[in-house]
Specification:
By secondary structure, the chain is an alpha/beta fold. 44% of the residues lie in helices and 14% in strands.
């Protein structure tokens, strides 16, 4: 029985994944913003509740500290929480730290949470980190890191998700030999979730497809040694922007991510 932390577990893919894992007896740590919704998921899965708003990186650090205080090991971290987009919207939103919101929630928050929980993951090795990414991918603009020019929510979402894939490759390389694997997955395209509904676009693929794809990376024995990979649903795939995995690009993104995260105080 593995201890699995799922972020964004109060709805959509996170909730469905929690229910799927609970059926096999895994110990679940459920993160979300809304305690009432989390309580409903906990009631059906037996999971333990942790609340935090990922629009605040200080809240992410407090979440990691709370998990560490309650548990001495973590077998799997599923970085699922995220902010979607409204199709056609140019409304630019900011996080509590003054960062562009999708950059903060979709990339900086999971990068920071993973960093803070690495001691628990190393202690539990073999352990896994699963980053929920997207087939929507755009290269980061290092000359405009906060996306102040020509902003659309869709572009910001795609930049943040490809940044998370680049981070996946970088972290996997740095953790080589530790027994902690790190992989990214595009679960399914426009699943039937509230995030898809909020985008204004029609659902295309069933939620169950996304759950199955994510679940494979959580506990499939055949993937125990796979790390630094990107999966399109259940198939290992190439990213749409190969430059995002070049050493220079990954290094520049890692340096920027580190600076933004280090600016946070609890």
């Amino acid at each position: 029985m593995a201890t699995v932390l799922i972020t964004g577990a109060s709805d959509g893919l996170g909730r469905a994944l929690a229910e799927d894992l609970a059926a096999d007896g895994h110990r679940l740590l459920l993160h979300g913003r809304n305690p009432e919704r989390l309580a409903r998921v906990a009631a059906t899965t037996g999971g333990e509740i942790f609340t935090a708003d990922f629009a605040s990186l200080a809240a992410v650090k407090r979440l990691a500290a709370e998990v560490t205080a309650r548990h001495n090991r973590l077998d799997v971290l599923v970085n699922n929480a995220g902010v979607g987009f409204e199709a056609g919207s140019t409304s630019r939103e900011m996080s509590a730290d003054g960062y562009e919101l999708r950059l903060a929630v979709n990339h900086l928050a999971p990068a920071l949470l993973t960093h803070e929980l690495l001691p628990l993951l190393r202690r539990a090795a073999p352990a896994r980190v699963v980053n929920v990414a997207s087939v929507g991918q755009q290269l980061f603009d290092f000359d405009d890191p906060q996306h102040e020019r020509d902003f659309t929510q869709f572009d910001a979402y795609c930049r943040s998700k490809l940044a998370l894939i680049s981070h996946t490759a970088d972290l996997a390389a740095r953790l080589a030999g530790t027994g902690v694997t790190v992989n990214a997955v595009h679960p399914a395209t426009f699943m039937a979730t509230t995030m898809t509904e909020a985008s204004g676009l029609p659902a295309q693929e069933p939620l169950e497809k996304g759950v199955a794809a994510t679940r494979r990376l959580v506990d499939h024995p055949g993937l125990a040694s796979v790390t630094g990979a990107y999966f399109h649903s259940e198939e290992q795939a190439s990213v749409s922007e190969p430059r995002a995995l070049d050493a220079e690009y990954v290094g520049r993104l890692a340096a920027l991510t580190g600076r933004l995260i280090d600016d946070v105080t609890v």
